[in-house]
Amino acid sequence: MSMFTDSADSLGARRTRAMAVVILALGLALLASESRSQGAGSLGGRVVDQTTGKPIQGASVSISRYRKPGDPSPPEAGALQAIQAIGNRGGGGDIPAGLLSINKGLIATQPTAADGTFRFTGLTAGDYTLAVTADRYLPQEYGQRVPGGRARVLTVQANENVGGADFQLTRLGIIAGTVVDATGAPMARVRIQVYVKGRSTSESPNGNWARIGNSVTDSQGRYRLDNLRPGDYYVSVFPQSTSAAPYVPLFHPGASDIESATPIVVPAAGELNGIDFRVSATKPAEITGKVTLPGAASLPPIGVALVRFDIQGDSTSRVTVTAEP
User: Are strands 231-238 and 191-197 parallel, antiparallel or unpaired?
Assistant: First the structure.
């Protein structure tokens, strides 16, 4: 491609980006004008811990415009559509990614203050929804009585300052304990895994046993599994086997398989300590058999494979031996 063609393409790209910025600015200006003509309102509230009542600082609060099917789009959405139309026609260049990432529903996000409060200002009259996320807490939409329940729509009139949009967040649960050997000595760097039953995940698409977390014991044999939603959990310990000390997986409170294990019930904001394991080496098992071939007096060396599967049906190890003639 010649220098002249490259220059033309570059000029077209600059013009396209400039037009996109101008259209976006016009759309936002129109929105601001509408806000001033109607009288801007505001919406605020407070986020606290459900158990302690203490404010949660730094929680992320998001406000979105609620529109029923058939409601007219706001001015900024029209600006976005115009920008996208320019990109669809070609225009000689790409639209800046930041402009196309505008969410038509989400308006703004802000962190809560030290006292847990927040307030969104400059709102046009209309219906809105609020949602909150915070580290180590269940996410929540305003009005939800239970996780995943129905949210509530908040209406802001012109010049109205709405308050009382408060949240009580539920802290996620914790399971913790210690792993020791048969003598009571702590076992370091032991793998701990936590499972749930009947939940479909990428690891367990059929909805059987699904591994949803893991941990490793420290030098004192201690482990911690956190950020657990209320529910039933199955915890297992997987010590590293050696020829001198062979181990098998152990499920709390001491079962050799998950079907015989007892679920650990984690309540909302529950911190369950003392979920301990005492692990003993097991006597190695032996599997013997004979390979025959009808009509054959003797057989050449034949490889026999022993494959180990975990509770999700995935192979975890494979040992191949040669059958003796």
Answer: antiparallel
pLDDT tens digits in sequence order for the chain, 325 residues long: 444 445 545 555 566 566 655 555 555 555 555 545 456 899 999 999 998 999 999 999 999 988 776 665 554 444 444 444 544 444 433 333 333 333 347 889 999 999 999 999 999 999 999 999 999 999 999 998 877 788 899 999 999 999 999 999 999 999 999 999 989 999 999 999 999 987 655 544 445 788 889 999 999 999 999 999 989 999 999 888 766 667 888 899 989 888 889 999 999 888 999 999 999 877 666 777 777 777 777 777 777 777 655 554 554 445 555 555 5
- Residue type at 140? Q
Cα dist. 12→86, 88, 232 in Å? 12, 14, 60
CA atoms within 13 A on the CB side of 36: 6
CB 217, CB 225: distance < 8 Å:
no
Q: Rounded to two decimals, what is the model's pTM? A: 0.61
The two tokens of residue 215 are 């941990």
